[in-house]
From TrEMBL:
Superkingdom assignment: Bacteria
Domain YdhG-like: 21-113
Protein name, UniProt field: YdeI/OmpD-associated family protein
Species lineage: Bacteria, Pseudomonadati, Bacteroidota, Flavobacteriia, Flavobacteriales
Organism from which the protein derives: Croceitalea vernalis
Coiled coil: none
Length: 200
């Protein structure tokens, strides 16, 4: 089934909010958006950038604005998609077709389109790389063994972290020393702690 068929199926499916989503679609298609199908919902884009989607559920139907955080929302109709997790997306929920104010919905859609054209998009912030914390035992061993120190420096940060975690999580001192000895042997060979398992 191609996208056009999926869109048709979505709107033609018998559902208690069928007339509601059809009304929203009529408003959507009166604007210059392109209609496509993503994440199992009719989605509306400008220059292939997601603006909003029309959704239907058991207890409501409505519009998802992908960057709704930038909408002025003077009537306070928008909800955070998932409080505490979702930063950009906002939902406008309806319970009945009578709840739809066509002029107001159109105004919100037009503002969302304009925001996209102006580049008002919330970019996910990159997580800071976890700072490498080398256990004291490993740090001392590396400082005394130049070959191991050089080899450790050539490993990826991920592999370095594996060794640090491996030694650090040992509860008993004897276990820490055993893990350290094993680690130094592998480090000198220039291989990661779990490389042998990854190649299986």
């Amino acid at each position: 089934m191609d996208k056009l068929e999926k869109i048709a199926s979505y709107f033609n499916e018998e559902h208690h909010y069928q007339t509601g989503i059809e009304a929203l679609r009529t408003i959507a298609l009166s604007t210059p958006v392109e209609e496509t199908y993503k994440w199992q919902f009719p989605t509306y884009t400008i220059n292939s950038k997601n603006i909003f989607a029309i959704c239907k559920f058991k207890s409501h139907f409505g519009i998802w604005f992908f960057n709704g955080v930038f909408l002025n929302d003077p009537f306070n109709v928008l909800e955070n998609a998932q409080e505490g997790k979702t930063k950009a997306m906002r939902h406008w929920k309806f319970k009945a077709i009578e709840d739809i104010d066509k002029k107001l919905v159109l105004a919100y859609i037009k503002e969302a389109i304009e925001n996209q054209k102006q580049g008002k998009v919330l970019v996910a912030s990159k997580k800071k790389a976890k700072q490498l914390e080398i256990p004291l035992l490993l740090a001392e061993a590396l400082s005394k063994d130049e070959k191991a120190k050089t080899a450790f420096g050539k490993l990826s940060t991920y592999k370095q972290n594996e060794y640090c975690e491996y030694i650090h999580t040992a509860k008993q001192e004897k276990t820490k020393i055993n893990r350290l000895e094993k680690s130094i042997t592998l480090i000198k060979q220039g291989i990661g702690l779990n490389d042998k398992y990854k190649n299986c």
